[in-house]
Amino acid sequence: MRFFQPAKKHFSDLTEKEIVALAISSEEDDERIYRSYAEMLRDDFPASAAVFDGMAGEETQHRDMLIELFRARWGEVIPLIRRAHVTGFYNRRPVWLAEAMPLDEIRDQAKIMERDAQRFYALAARRCEDASTRKLMGDLAAAEAGHVRAAVSLEHEHLDPETRQAEDDSERRQFILTWVQPGLAGLMDGSVSTLAPIFAAAFATGDTWQTFLVGLAASVGAGISMGFTEAASDDGQLSGRGSPLKRGIASGVMTAIGGLGHALPYLIPHFWTATIIAFCVVFCELWAIAWIQKKYMETPFLRAALQVVVGGALVLAAGIIIGGA
Asked: Domain range holding 90?
């Protein structure tokens, strides 16, 4: 019958000893998470790193209080019980995912962690019958409830408005350098450079399927080329432009999308229907590029639109002229 033992236990089935052991492991995990956040942010956002260092110190104090209680009641051997061993218990987002999280989202995640811990200690206090254990669980529930306020206090201590604004600006700049700039370059290259071969093939052959194959090959080939070029051109260490892998993905994917946008209409068998839709897609792509330049690169919209539309129109005209020759 041992083969049918459940892999997890319900929280209601845990003994007081197991509840305290679970609390100890949870505090240890949260401490490591906060210290990992601090380490990730230390170089670029030192003030926010100091906030998470302070929160990690709070978790260390809670763990020490729980271990002292456990020793007094049950001795030195603490059973290994983690959140994953309890059915329906809250889980933490893996720390490695935080590398892709915006700074504000990391701060919000910390607040969620504190609220989860507060609910756990409040429920644990109701489940414990021993007076000292019940009191400690209640005290920790109150402490976790106050941690959000403590986090705010730490933010005020380490993050004055000017420092917070500087960190937010730095994060936005890093996002633009790592994702927006390579992606925009790829979108421009894919949208503009593939106009000539796609429309040249269209007007030379009048065959929508052959035109689609030319567009597919041009788009995928350009995406691969741009992705590898972006990734290999700069490792990001000196320029501060971030991970070459991320930049390569952004550039390569957006290049392919830019070309496929006006190649996909040629899956429609009727030549002029496909061509008119492709013209409309090209118009939308060029205006989207101008909008992105305005929003993220602070280029005046009319100037960006003029540059992109005129350049795209010249390439499009070249493709039509060559294809119709």
From this structure: 2-159
Question: Looking at 140, 159, 178, which one is the last position of a domain?
Answer: 159
Angle between helices 208-233 and 271-296 (to 10 degrees): 20
Could you tell me if 243 and 139 lie in one domain? no
The predicted-structure confidence for 9-46, as pLDDT tens digits, reads as follows: 888 888 999 999 999 999 999 999 889 888 888 887 88
- Rounded Cα distance between 290 and 313, Å, is 14
Answer yes or no: are the C-beta atoms of 275 and 202 closer than 8 Å: yes
- pLDDT, tens digit, 9 for 90 and up, residues 256-300: 999 999 999 999 999 999 999 998 998 888 888 888 888 887 777
What CA–CA distance (Å, rounded) separates 46 from 69?
35
Closest CA to 216 of 179, 272, 266: 266
Per-position DSSP letters for 102-144, written without gaps between them: -HHHHHHHHHHHHHHHHHHHHHHHHH--SHHHHHHHHHHHHHH
Q: What count of residues does the chain have?
A: 325
Read off φ and ψ for residue 139, nearest 5 degrees: -65, -40
Q: Which residue has the higher pLDDT, 273 or 311?
A: 273
State which amino acid sits at residue 48.
S
284, amino acid identity: C
Q: Are residues 71 and 216 in the same domain?
A: no
Question: How many domains, the chain?
Answer: 2
pTM of the model: 0.56
**Domain final residue, candidates 115, 135, 159:** 159
